[in-house]
Each structure stands twice: as C-alpha cells, then as structure tokens.
Design brief:
Layout lengths: L1 E3 L2 E4 L3 H11 L11 H11 L4 E5 L4 H9 L4 E4 L4 H15 L6 E4 L2 E4 L4 E4 L2 E3 L3 H12 L7 H8 L10 H13 L5 E4 L3 E4 L2
Length: 195
C-alpha cells in the first residue's frame, strides 16, 4: 500500500511514488506484494476514507469492482502523470473538512467572511499576515502549527524559507492580542493557541 497525503494508493511503482510524495507534500508507506483489491478491502475496514486505485486492470468491470469495494477513485495504466496529480489533489480537496465562517477559541472570534477579529469583545486591527496566522492557529484547534506551515499557508510561494517573518508576525500578533498570553511557542515544533 502507498499512502500520499493521507490518500491510499495501490499498485504504484517506486519512482512514481517518490514523485507523488514530492508533488503532494505527503507521506509514504509501502506494503508490497498485495493485490489492490485486498489493499482496498483492508483500508475500508480500517476506516480510511480516501482510496485511489492505480492498476493495469482498466476494464469497466475492474473499475466498477474497485469502486464497489470502497475506492474513491480508480485510474488505469497507462495514465498521464498530470491526471494522477489532479486526481490526488481532488481527493485532498474533497476530503478536507469545511471550516466554519467564524473561528472561536479562548475569547478570540475570527470572522473569515468579514475579515474581522475580536478578543473578549475588543476589536483587533490586524494586518493580512497577522489575520492569516491567527486563522491557521485557530483552525488547528490547539494543535501545533509549524513556522514552515504558516509560511506556506499565509505567505506567497516566493517567501524566503529562512526569513524571520513568521517569528516577527507572531510577536506583533501576541502584542495585539494582549494578556493573558494566547499564542504558545512549542520549542522546535511551532506555535499553538493555548488558554
């Protein structure tokens, strides 16, 4: 079994797996020697919700059979790599939980539609980057968010990965949020909303 960005893939060659991991930014695990149908059955039994079957069996009966086993998508070989990448991205997008239009935690209310933020009823005047960082931290529901993830999600693709921008933005955001302190630094890991 191959898993890329939390999507289970069956029947993928090693070179293709490496490319998929680099494209999706996902992780990889392999259980060689199993038939795709058997892998799909196991994954569905375990509750894995996103399964993309890649196989040389491209007959209609095989595709229908794979989908009936619980696969979310089925792609027969040969295929265009761009199509595979698009299908992986579609599975990721479809399975991402919808975020509420208003995020709340520890007295902070972030209205995504109105682009407004408050703490304990006090309006916060945030820059777009501060708003984006606060949005990512609130959406993580107390989980740690790395500086790299914040840089990737809040800044554009041209941002220097060695910049201090995240640290500086978190510092100014902390000051604007006021006391008691809300954003915790988890050494070596990132930031999270505490309190």
């Amino acid at each position: 079994m191959t898993t890329v960005a939390g999507i289970a893939l069956a029947g993928v060659g090693m070179a293709l797996m490496a490319l998929l991991v680099s494209v999706s930014g996902g992780y990889l695990s392999v259980l060689p020697g199993l038939h795709g149908d058997a892998v799909c059955r196991r994954l569905v039994q375990r509750g894995v919700s996103r399964v993309l079957m890649l196989t040389a069996s491209d007959a209609v009966e095989d595709r229908v059979g794979g989908l009936m086993l619980g696969a979310d998508d089925y792609l027969g070989k040969p295929f265009a790599f761009s199509e595979l990448v698009a299908r992986v991205h579609a599975l990721i997008w479809r399975s991402a939980p919808a975020r509420p239009p208003v995020l709340r935690a520890a007295g902070v209310t972030l209205d995504l539609a109105r682009r407004s933020a408050e703490r304990d009823g006090r309006l916060l005047r945030l820059t777009p980057k501060e708003f984006g960082v606060l949005e990512q931290l609130l959406a993580a529901s107390g989980d740690v968010v790395s500086a790299e993830t914040l840089l990737d999600k809040v800044w554009d693709e041209h941002a220097d990965p060695f910049t201090n921008a995240v640290r500086i933005t978190v510092g100014t955001l902390r000051r604007k949020l006021g006391d008691p302190p809300l954003i915790e630094t988890v050494t070596g890991a990132g930031y999270r909303i505490g309190g």
